[in-house]
Amino acid sequence: MPTLTRPRNDPAQYDDLADEWWRPRGAFCALHWLAEARAGVVPNASRPGAVLLDVACGGGLLAPHVAAKGYRHVGIDIGVAAPAVARAHGVTVVRGDALWLPIADESVDVVVAGEILEHVREPDRLVAEAARVLRPGGTFVCDSLADTRLCKFAMVTVGERLRLAPPGIHDPDLFVAPRAIADACRSRGIDLTVRGLRPHVCDGLAWLARRRDHVRMVPTRLTNVVWQGYGVKAPG
């Protein structure tokens, strides 16, 4: 994995690492694990032409996990190189800012915001934009890193040393409390269910021993490291 020299949380890092998106055991290996867990709470499409909006889609890692669910998979990403990678994996990508989605009101059936809330300085605005574009009865799915000392130690101090995340990819000052996102969702008509995610222990040990490339993420009641939220926007 290349050593990064840009400031922490600089979005250009994702362009620097464009060749890493789909490389086994590459810089974004943990994002593959989370993409699978994220897709697990995405419902099957309930109507022809249903749209899933993948906010900050990166290299399109969600694509294989939702391909059979019946959606048109549309991605939004601010990057330059990552959208090209996502398109190669079947995602229709629009270049844009997660805080100013170039999408019409109430026009999508599912909004997925995976591993993006901890990269923006206004996560409440991201939630507001997701609620704006989501149809009544549509599903919002998100996951992020908790604003706790344990998470900052696990994901930055330890995670970067183990190469679970590229050095400098996160700014721990931007990590997000799940309660804050749940409150932001509730104020916009989305009742968010929150749970923690952790690596499957046996898978994680096999990954460390280089006997396995993929690690399953399993639910946990503890939300103080990685957490996931999912909820439905109220009708009307």
Features:
alpha/beta, 8-stranded mixed beta sheet, Rossmann fold, 236 residues
Would you mind describing this structure in some detail?
With 236 residues, this protein is α/β, with parallel strands linked by helices. The chain has a single domain (12-233), classed as 3-Layer(aba) Sandwich (Rossmann fold), CATH 3.40.50. It has eight helices and eight strands; from the N terminus they run ααβαβαββαβααβαββ. The protein has helices at residues 12-16, 29-39, 63-66, 82-87, 123-133, 149-158, 178-186, 201-208, and strands spanning 51-55, 72-77, 92-95, 108-114, 134-145, 190-199, 217-220, 226-233. It has an eight-stranded mixed β-sheet. Strand 2 (72-77), helix 4 and strand 3 (92-95) form a beta-alpha-beta unit. Helix 5 packs parallel to helix 7. The longest helix has 11 residues, at 29-39. It is globular and about 50 Å long. The termini are far apart.
